[in-house]
Amino acid sequence: MKSINKKWKIVHSQPIYGEPFPLYEETVKLPDGETIKYAVNRSKDAAAVLLVPKEGDVLLTYQYRFPIDSWIYDLPGGKVNAGESPKATAIRECIEETGYKPKKIKKLVSYYMRPGRSDGMLHIFFSNEMEKVSGRQTSSVERVQERIVRKEKLDDLLKRGAIVDPTLLIAWHTAKFYGYV
Would you place residue 125 in the very low, low, confident or very high pLDDT band (cuts 50, 70, 90)? Predict the structure, then answer.
């Protein structure tokens, strides 16, 4: 009996599109010998941070997301730079997007963002302490606003289906599971 749990083998990999979302068409050999083409996004890892600075408040970002033509709540975060740890990325991105530096940061969860098409992993951190260190330093394509939201309002937005960012959803529910919020 053949095992269905064998891995696929890459026969050839051809870049189709470069940064910021490197897309490859990969020719792969399946365990049964069949050869197929498969599109894969070879993204860099990313990191984000959920900040709950004091009882009842959550620091979020609010920004326009062009692909879905909507302003949404999400978490401060971004791509991990070469030579940078995910934890350092989460801190850097939080400062850039909100002007706040998380203190006593700890790992909350890591997951693959789109495991069917991408190998990029997202690392989410948690902090319940922060300090104001600077003004925001966002790029020209980012129109980020920091928002301090009451936990009750965030829960209400979740109940109404108004939170559509998967990183925020995963972070919030994981933090609740661990009893952090």
Answer: very high
